User: What shape does this take?
Amino acid sequence: MNDLDFNASEYREMEAQILDTIDRWVEKDVRPIALHFDQADEYPLELVEQMKELGLFGATISQEYGGLGLSATTYARIVSRICEVWMAPSGIFNSHLIMASCVQRAGTAAQKAHFLPRFATGELRGGIGLTEPDAGTDLQSIRMVAQRDGDDYVLNGTKTWISNGIKGNCLAVLTKTDPQASPAHRGMSLFLCEKGEGFTVGKKLKKLGYRAIDSAELIFQDFRVSADNLIGGEEGKGFVQVAGGLELGRINIAARGAGMAAGATKMALAYAKERKTFGKPIAEHQAIQLKLAEMSTRAEAARLLVEQAAVKFDKNERCDLEAGQAKFFASEAAVKNSLDGMRVFGGYSYSPEYEIERFYRDAPLLCIGEGTNEIQRIIIAKQMIARSDG
Ligand SMILES: Cc1cc2nc3c(=O)[nH]c(=O)nc-3n(C[C@H](O)[C@H](O)[C@H](O)COP(=O)(O)OP(=O)(O)OC[C@H]3O[C@@H](n4cnc5c(N)ncnc54)[C@H](O)[C@@H]3O)c2cc1C
Assistant: This one.
């Protein structure tokens, strides 16, 4: 499903053009700068301007609000193609689009009209603020409080690990409007917070991988936000609103994993054909062939699981199980293929001059974000059991 006024063949043609543009952009503008920005852990601001021109900040935002209105399938293909080369830039628009999807699905008409066009152009961009120093998986134990005061709410608390927290200017922030509520999720509310007095960056966090994209601790100290920015206009819906975005969020992480698994395979194959030992390319040694075969099979299986979940999502069919399986398998495939790729590259895999080194540091994040893979497997099993009960 896409919200453009196209028939299926026109849509396929448009998608092919978009993917071709993305491929050319990745080779011309993304790959050449990856080494420098990753090593310097420097935010690639020039990519942001290019992403605005490409429409990526509005990729899944409805055309009615100035976005491209792309299907989840097309979106996943775009994400995979970028991540075949460098995963971090996808984080500039991925968590931004999760924030946008919360507004698109649950926002009031006024919120949609006010925020979505500005999200689509990238004028306002950011992500989601859920995690706190003492609460990640167990989001119902967050401490950030939002207290009503006249026409405003006053926010106090700390968020951490927030992607786009420094360079972004807007964040969907999960809070407690009723800290005593039981169950806790009934007292949780989501606010759209534009940066201003009382909303400051505590610090930029250093990371193993996924560098160049800022991850920040954010401090809210008597930060006032208008009650108009409470998503949906009703308290107590924040947890459900966040959970509602998880299917697309998981498809997105899965697409990153499938892209990385494919990227690692391509670079290992190319290197294996070039590098010689004992008088022949290492690709002719059976031990290397076994790795290449496993890597390509994992990458292809990951791609197919992502496609399956995205197609179901686009048909408005239930896809929590499929999105969970895709996220779990594709993220593990990215980790395994990065490690196998390192084996193929031998000693050179330890040099940042070779992209496989970055893949190995970037891939593990995919097992943590959008629900850790421990939790993911539990969710998959619970859904299997529930579906088999009828
Ligand atoms: C680079 C990066 C970017 C991030 N970006 C964002 C962002 O933009 N916005 C945001 O809100 N957050 C972000 N996060 C935070 C991320 O979502 C959390 O790290 C993640 O949800 C896990 O939470 P935690 O780190 O507190 O781990 P914990 O919840 O403390 O979990 C620790 C371990 O215990 C396991 N565990 C926990 N509970 C259970 C259980 N019931 N059963 C079995 N195992 C369990 C987990 O799987 C994990 O292995 C980011 C993190 C990183 C590293």
